[in-house]
Amino acid sequence: MNTYLxxxxxxxxxxxxxxxxxxxxxxxxxxxxxxxxxxxxxxxSRLVVRADWWFTTPAVIIQPLSGLWLVQQAGWSWTSxxxxxxxxxxxxxxxxxxxxxxxxxxxxxxxxxxxxxGHTALPVAYWQKxxxxxxxxxxxxxAMLGVYFLMVYKPTLWG
Length: 159
Hints:
This protein is mainly alpha-helical. Helices cover 84% and strands 0% of the residues. It has helices at residues 3-32, 38-74, 81-116, 124-153. The longest helix is centred in the middle third of the chain and has 37 residues, at 38-74. The mean pLDDT is 96.
């Protein structure tokens, strides 16, 4: 088998898992937060945390390792504008993602505590964290859309 194609397949698969899990998790958390059901929020937030650990985290690790190996093997210039912008957008997504993970952990804990106690509403701190979680999600998702575009088209941007 061709090692390059195996690594490329792994790179594509991990990108699909990373972005797909992120988008799916955001979709369910976004709507669970608007459901008015503390029990639903507790379940969904717990599963979102689990999905991040099981799918997103390994993909976040595989992506740069496989991507940098592919760049080296393909002989692309490390100073290609499309590649530098891709790396910058990936870093931006990561800078947004790390606090999102921490926020999700807190949100899941608060929602579970409220559900266990039989509360019909979540504390103000939950909603503050949910607002920050959402604000960080938009630039991360848009950055990853940019990464996909750049990886497919590899456009000449400047220079």
